[in-house]
Fold these 2 entries.
Entry 1:
Amino acid sequence: MSAIFKYEVETEAEPVAAVVPERALISLEQITKTYDSGENAVQALRGIDTGITAGEFVSIIGPSGSGKSTLMHILGCLDSPSTGRYWLDGEDVATLTSRELARIRNRKIGFVFQTFNLLPRATILKNVELPLLYAGLGRDERQERAMKALERVGLNTRHKHRPNELSGGQRQRVAIARALVNNPSLILADEPTGNLDTKTGSDIIKIFEELSHAGQTIILVTHDPAIAARTQRRIRIVDGLIDKESD
Amino acid sequence: MIIFESIIDGIRDIRDHFGRTMLQLVGIILGAASIVATFSLSTAGKAASMEFYRVSGGIQKMWVWNKPTGKVTLNAKALASKGLTYSDALAIRRDAREIDLVAPMASQNTVVRFGRVEKTREISGVTPEYAPLTDFHAGTGRFLTDSDVASAARVVVLGSERAQEFFGTDNPVGKTLTIGDTGYAVVGVMEEKYFSFDDKRNVLRWMNRQIYIPVTTLITRRGETLEHGKIDRMQTRMKSVKRSDEAVDEVARILMREHGVKDYDVMSRVANLRRNEQNNKMYDMTFMVCGIISLLVGGIVVMNIQLASFNERVREVGTRKAVGASPAQIFFQFLSESVLVSLFGGLLGLFVGRLFTQAITSLINQPTVITMGTLINAMIFAAGTGLLFGMYPAIRASRLDPIVALRTE
């Protein structure tokens, strides 16, 4: 691999290979986001530059209105930046269409939300299967992989229940299983402990820590310093810019 | 696969919101039901008409009637014309090339007596052609023959009810019936004629109450010569339905030649049939429009409820999008739900339509026939309604911005 790489550099390296560092999973270059272009334009992000390496456990912190939600949406491919480039896994996703973004979300990103966002009428198993359904997998493979994901969060015995039969902590674990099930490059958790008590929240962060040890890249958005402290690196956003990055 | 999952989801949705779904479906149910009722009525109506035509002499049948001219100024020949005569029938039989059967008919009320039973009854003077033209044949004995007509024989053939009236359960053949003051040998009794549109009333019962003697006998008994013997009407049969207009024209031309004035009327069953078909089309259209309007209303309700259900599920749509559902997948999920709901409504509509047709049958004695094609048509219309009106909610759901959707409480 390295020999081939060298050879390419010596002749004429591909621009992509040159720009994106080999191990960088995410690279943000001068990301800006402006809402309502015109007189009432609000610039939520004013030029974010950062990179995240595969396997990192990073938290994004900042006061409300700082732009961290906007950044999270862009990182999660739910939204596109106004300007700048966003390399995810070697692909510039800043310019993709909504259909292509759906595919990226489906294959490369797993979401965990503050409010769990499980489908109330579907069983736990069906909830976890959902990303695989949209990926077009067959029923048997979906069930097998969903059961494995539930096993990783310790809920494989509850797969026939409905979300409203579970506690908040259990629901969030189901959501984590759903985020894991498609083997994503990146898990994106938006205030995952916001609706949980301290003890349960701590248990959830423990699951993220375990996943991180197993090599999973995780970005966690939080306003809770105690939770941010348990991640490997903190990116602090203030007024649409990175205020401070700390290890 | 997504479609399949969506169908499962849709069924779950119907079950979870059964009352709401039923409301949503009322329009679709009524629409599909009225389509079923329309088709079953008109299919049955057409079949019954055709059957009636078949048992009463076929669609090649034509009639010639006497008809007053209403004209004041008439030439000598026209003044001499006294309406249809026996010789007109002979002229048509001889000259008309489009006609293969001619049956002149004259009738008269006379006292009829056998033993102690004496009643005034209508006597019909006919010819042997009458039997094939009305598809009416002797049950016992025989019908009138050409030699009966040629010799103006005093023979009589009875309708089944008349036979019973005068002879009870005895076999009348060979006995002598007194008509007026003359004895007639009973040579046959007709089979019983029956046809009903509603299985209750025999619309051909009048045929069982006929008394037939040779038309020549009737004319001479009145003291008229055969040449000027008046007849009331003629039934004729055209050789080919395709040349029905020519047949009518030809008969009219021959009569004009004989009479010099239009004191007759020629009608064909084909012309009646054409007029009926026109009426039936109008009738079908009216019902179809009613069905389509109720489907449209049903469709609008489906759309409304789909939109409401979409508003309830904005967050769910957001979640689905976040985990990678493409706009097309969301579109098909919503569309298949409304198609499914409409198909379900269509299915219920089939049963309601069945009830409609039963009600129609028992209330107004109209026959109804439900065919497979009718059911398929109704289902296609119902599904089409779901497809059409599910489009807008599905497009809205597919275009929903996932960020907005996830933020919605």
Entry 2:
Amino acid sequence: MAQKPKGLVLWNGKKRSDGRGVNELRNISMQVGVLPQVTGSAMVTFGKTKVIASVYGPKLVVPSHLSDSSKAIVNVEYTMAPFSTKERIDPRFSRRSQELSKILSRAFEAAIFTDMYPETEINIFVQVINADAGTRIACLNAASLALCQAGVEMRDLVVGITAGKVDGKVVLDLDNPEDNYGEADFAFAMMPTKNEIVLLQMDGNLTKEECDEAMKLMKNGIQKIYQMQRDALLADYKEESK
Amino acid sequence: MVKLEANLDLVFSYSRKDRKIDDFRKITITCGLIEHAEGSAQVELGKTKVIAGIKLSVKEPYLDASEEGILMVGVTQAEIIRHMSFEPTRSSFADVEVARLVDRGLREGGAIDVKKLVIKPKELVWCINIDVVVVNNDGNLIDACSLAAMAALQDAKMLKVDTETNRVVLGEKTKELLPLMKIITTTTFQKIKKTIVLDPAIEEESPKNCKFTISLCDDNNICSMQKGGSSTMTEDDFEEMYKIAVKKRKELLKILKN
């Protein structure tokens, strides 16, 4: 964890450094069908974080010996554009992207009815255009929308959110300074109507009580984002039927 | 389908025939077995066997953490058992996952006081490289590797640095220990259908199950958590696993102290 610059107050007792309250989300926008040539695509922004997801498939696996005769293979590829962070990042597949790709593909494997598409693969590409904390969660929400637009059958929409601890206070949806200088960050995703956790990652230092509090905040946040995802999908269908 | 499930239960009951669902297998730790390493430990968890070695070097600090030393963890599977990788098509991911989990557990939990690793502020800091080699994989590499890393950190001795050339004097260990702050314990669970088991053996590990790792530091605070596997879990599962993790922390601390 990086050193906190002197004079930076993340929590002053009432408000966070960007003026939000404890359980306030950043400005979130979701748009489905941003790439017209692709069967499923979506763009999601969380504050300054901006990501695009696209879905290809289900299609036959090439080479075919890698296919699974009982279910579909779900691949997620998480990439960050070289210009997405303050310092240019190497566009090659890093250890971090490798881990995030796998974590995301596992989350969707749990949500998709993979046994309905035997011998096929579903490829999900998520690209971070601008990174400002919470990229994995933004990617997850975008991929969930893109899968839905592509018509892949899922148990539920997958909805994610982050929380963390800044200056000793548990808060929802971290922004960049909070992510860098906070004491903990917690990424969490659920299938909201089924109440099942599909992604959970936490780093930092939390007591059990703080952890429970963070989970409570995030479950509330997830309901809000779930509604946003549904609205975004509805808006797309309305557009299409015009 | 019925046949398959029956089989799974058989394997499960066979591998757990002499321990409860919240028992570790026998843990043996041997410290200081590698002379050339600044610190080392071998951990045997049942038949799983890993060796951790620590090497120290000096480096320029990272720009965003100019007053802190560097801690790096790498996990590699020994080539001799390459065939045992449980995801043969992408064998490297298993290594990356284990390495990232051990690394994050130690770093985020503050196992080492990185502020004490500064030699010259903004110019020169110590870099602690922990490399874990998996010699035999019989399941639960995460717990074995983090235990080995922790034991090796306890065993390691500082080196001297030549302040004129800014280089390490190789091979001359001092008696000074590393600036350890906290002891991190890691426990990994596997949810097989609806049963939660601690310390899964290789027969119990499957990418289809839900895997969950919790690292605890002082006061039973949580310093790292991760869900793996392609199945789901609920909050009640989390409560149960936290309870077991707290209970097992005491046992692991006792083993690490000896």
